[in-house]
Amino acid sequence: MRAVMTVIGPDRVGIIASVSALLASLNINILDLSQTIMGGIFTMTILVDTAEANCPFEEVRAALSAHGERENLSIRIQREDTFAAMHRI
């Protein structure tokens, strides 16, 4: 299953590395990634494949949220179909 993640927080060295390492530890593949820095705020949108994740989706969500709290980041993940339905015009 594909999912869309967002990562937002104060810019600093290592954000992409720490998020990527966590995804790798969960056996989640990054399919596409876009990031930018706006006025010192780091923003990243990631399309991931969770089909081979080593835990259920809700545990993935909890692990990402906990990582975000530790790293002073907002990390959210939604199933791709939910994301698409919410953003349909």
Features:
globular, alpha+beta, single chain, 89 residues, 4 strands
How many runs of DSSP E, i.e. beta strands? 4
Shape: globular
Largest sheet: 4 strands, antiparallel
Cα end-to-end separation: 23 Å
Helix count equals 3
Q: What does the oligomeric state look like here?
A: single chain
Order of helices and strands: EHEEHEH
Q: Radius of gyration, Cα only, in angstroms?
A: 13 Å
User: What low-confidence regions span 5 or more consecutive residues with pLDDT below 50?
Assistant: none
Mean pLDDT: 94
The neighbouring-strand order within the major sheet is: 2-3-1-4
Q: Estimate what percentage of residues fall within beta strands.
A: 35-45%
Q: Helix amount, in percent? A: 25-40%
Q: Structural class of the secondary structure composition?
A: alpha+beta
Give a brief outline of the structure.
The protein is an alpha+beta fold and 89 residues long. Helices cover 37% and strands 38% of the residues. The chain contains three helices and four strands.
Structure description:
By secondary structure, this protein is an alpha+beta fold. It is 37% helix and 38% strand. The protein is built from 3 helices and 4 strands. It has helices at residues 15-25, 57-71, 80-86, and strands at residues 2-10, 29-38, 41-49, 74-79. A 4-stranded antiparallel β-sheet has the order 2-3-1-4. The protein is globular. The two termini are 23 Å apart.
How are the SSEs placed, and which strands pair?
Blueprint (H helix, E strand, L loop, with lengths): L1 E9 L4 H11 L3 E10 L2 E9 L7 H15 L2 E6 H7 L3
Antiparallel strand pairs: 1-3, 1-4, 2-3
